[in-house]
């Protein structure tokens, strides 16, 4: 169905999508800003179109320039990757109305699940466990006080259109509510152009567990297991693994069934991720749904043997899922670390610059997803992610050892990276035992 696809993104995910398109026999069109003219995705694509100067609002976030590139390139579809416009319902709607296929869910689904309040309401109606809290935006401080009185402290205030930890405040003391409520509203307005916030019960030491689902346009939905995403810094994931050391077969089945039930309730199609909080008693609660390919998708690919990007493209082409739930088997353990151009000794500040020397590890069970190369200059305008190192082995202990070996063999000179940070993390006894939660790095001594 597709002859040519425009990749509306940059960096490692653009390279990953181009690989999948090539293996499917589909031509690729890269877009790039002036700052990315030497990026690997530009070199690898069949065609490439410059869409503007470095600032994202003038390039990767610019609807008209991206759509112009699609028109002049004669593509059939647009793949948004993750980040940028991947979960922008207005962009997806424009793609659909312009006669192209958006490789992802419908704009309606993106809008539903992008509104955290609406998503929570829909999941509650579908019978998916949700945290106690508000079903509508909280409009005033007096209303917030009444809600806190009903559900009890601690609570968390969240932006209705939020993500990435922005517009989020935890309240443990009633005297702190007024300031937290005001700051959450202001930050939500600045970050998302939407000041609406909601309140829900806060779990003190949860794990962040997400379930990968795939749904075709013929009503078939499956889950592909869970990913443990609890190693986070300021609500940004750094290390992900599959399976979770806290999830047994029984819990995996329950979480998978809940994720499928939620997707069925909205007639969802495409890849998607249901994100849950898991408490210390084994109870899980819906947090949000991501309607795109995830940064951490490789760990699921390795334990299932399924190419998720190809699957996403084939679903958009109208193909039926090639696997039933009974055919999904999980093998071994996979771990991914996000290699960022950041200085961990100096508050993890971004460290763009020229890569003077580069050597990536190899050997069995080692995978590198990246857009960089020796001599490449990392631009200062975008996310600091420069690559992902993913390993797979027969069990978690073996995977940790393999990852440590691979990190030791990773040499990146010219810029600071997070590689030394991960080496120390893997040496931590609690991490090795799987005793982790979303606050683990707050306790971790670096």
UniProtKB/TrEMBL annotation:
Domain ATP-grasp: 120-317
Function according to Swiss-Prot or TrEMBL: This protein is a component of the acetyl coenzyme A carboxylase complex; first, biotin carboxylase catalyzes the carboxylation of the carrier protein and then the transcarboxylase transfers the carboxyl group to form malonyl-CoA.
Pathway the protein takes part in: Lipid metabolism; malonyl-CoA biosynthesis; malonyl-CoA from acetyl-CoA: step 1/1
Catalytic activity: N(6)-biotinyl-L-lysyl-[protein] + hydrogencarbonate + ATP = N(6)-carboxybiotinyl-L-lysyl-[protein] + ADP + phosphate + H(+)
GO molecular function, one term: ATP binding
Lineage, opening ranks: Bacteria, Bacteria division WOR-3
Subunit text: Acetyl-CoA carboxylase is a heterohexamer of biotin carboxyl carrier protein, biotin carboxylase and the two subunits of carboxyl transferase in a 2:2 complex.
Listed PANTHER family: BIOTIN CARBOXYLASE, CHLOROPLASTIC (PTHR48095:SF2), PYRUVATE CARBOXYLASE SUBUNIT A (PTHR48095)
Family matches, as SUPFAM superfamilies: Glutathione synthetase ATP-binding domain-like, PreATP-grasp domain, Rudiment single hybrid motif
Boundaries of every Biotin carboxylation domain copy: 1-446
Matching InterPro entries: ACC_Biotin_Carboxylase (IPR051602), Acetyl_CoA_COase_biotin_COase (IPR004549), ATP-grasp (IPR011761), BC-like_N (IPR005481), Biotin_carboxylation_dom (IPR011764), Biotin_COase_C (IPR005482), CPAse_ATP-bd (IPR005479), PreATP-grasp_dom_sf (IPR016185)
EC number: 6.3.4.14
Protein name, entry field: Biotin carboxylase
């Amino acid at each position: 169905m597709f002859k040519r696809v425009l990749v509306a993104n940059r960096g490692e995910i653009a390279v990953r999508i181009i690989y999948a398109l090539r293996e499917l026999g589909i031509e690729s069109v890269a877009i790039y800003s002036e700052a990315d003219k030497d990026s690997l995705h530009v070199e690898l694509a069949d065609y490439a179109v410059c869409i503007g100067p470095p600032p994202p609002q003038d390039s990767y976030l610019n609807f008209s320039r991206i759509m112009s590139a699609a028109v002049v390139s004669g593509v059939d579809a647009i793949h948004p990757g993750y980040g940028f416009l991947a979960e922008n319902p207005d962009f997806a709607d424009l793609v659909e109305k312009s006669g192209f296929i958006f490789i992802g869910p419908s704009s309606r689904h993106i809008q539903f699940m992008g509104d955290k309040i609406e998503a929570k309401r829909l999941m509650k109606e579908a019978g998916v466990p949700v945290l106690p809290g508000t079903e509508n935006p909280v409009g005033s401080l007096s209303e917030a006080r009444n809600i806190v009185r009903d559900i009890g402290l601690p609570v968390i205030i969240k932006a209705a259109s939020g993500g990435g930890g922005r517009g989020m405040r935890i309240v443990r003391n009633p005297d702190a509510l007024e300031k937290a409520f005001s700051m959450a509203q202001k930050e939500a307005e600045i970050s998302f152009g939407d000041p609406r916030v909601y309140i829900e019960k806060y779990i003190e030491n949860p794990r962040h567990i997400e379930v990968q689902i795939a749904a075709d346009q013929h009503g078939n939905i499956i889950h592909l297991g869970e990913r443990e995403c609890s190693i986070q810094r300021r609500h940004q994931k750094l290390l992900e693994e599959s399976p979770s050391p806290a999830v047994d077969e029984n819990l995996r089945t329950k979480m998978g069934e809940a994720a499928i039930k939620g997707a069925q309730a909205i007639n969802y199609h495409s890849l998607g991720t249901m994100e849950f909080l898991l408490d210390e008693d084994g109870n899980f609660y819906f947090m949000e749904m991501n309607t795109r390919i995830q940064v951490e998708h490789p760990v699921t690919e390795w334990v299932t043997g399924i190419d998720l990007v190809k699957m996403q493209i084939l679903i958009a082409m109208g193909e039926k899922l090639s696997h039933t739930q009974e055919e999904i088997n999980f093998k071994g353990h996979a771990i991914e670390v996000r290699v960022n151009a950041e200085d961990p000794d100096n508050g993890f500040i971004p460290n763009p610059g020229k890569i003077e020397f580069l050597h990536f590890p190899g050997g069995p069970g080692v995978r590198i997803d990246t857009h960089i190369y020796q001599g490449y200059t990392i631009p200062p305008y975008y996310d600091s992610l420069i690559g992902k190192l993913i390993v797979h082995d027969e069990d978690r202990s073996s995977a940790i050892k393999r990852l440590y070996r691979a990190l030791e063999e990773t040499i990146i000179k010219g810029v600071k990276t997070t590689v030394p940070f991960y080496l120390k993390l893997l040496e931590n006894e609690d991490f090795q035992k799987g005793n982790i939660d979303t606050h683990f790095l707050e306790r971790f001594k670096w």
